[in-house]
Amino acid sequence: MTDSDGEVRELTAADAKYFKPATEVLPPALCERLGLTLSEKGSAAQPPGSAGERLRKIR
Question: Are 31 and 46 a contacting pair, CB within 8 Å?
């Protein structure tokens, strides 16, 4: 992601709405190794203590 000057910028919450679940973009073997599984809605279910869970706690 770059700004109007072409410099790399920080990702924002607005950028996150365009993200795809990891299970849609990573190879199945890597998802398995990371402990990611598909939830009923088809999105990645984070394993307990995952990076996503820790980030939510920080904010």
Answer: no
Cβ neighbours of residue 51 under 8 Å, at least 6 residues apart? Answer: none
What is the full DSSP assignment across 1-59?
-B-TTS-B----HHHHTTPPPHHHHS-HHHHHHHT-EE-TTSSEEPPTT-HHHHHHHH-
What single letter denotes the amino acid at residue 41? Answer: K
Class of residue 3 by CB neighbours under 10 A (exposed 0-12, middle 13-18, buried 19+): exposed
- What's the predicted TM-score (pTM) here? 0.45
Structure-block tokens of residue 50: 């995952």
Report the distance separating Cα 31 and Cα 36, nearest Å: 5
pLDDT tens column, 39-56: 544 555 555 566 666 556
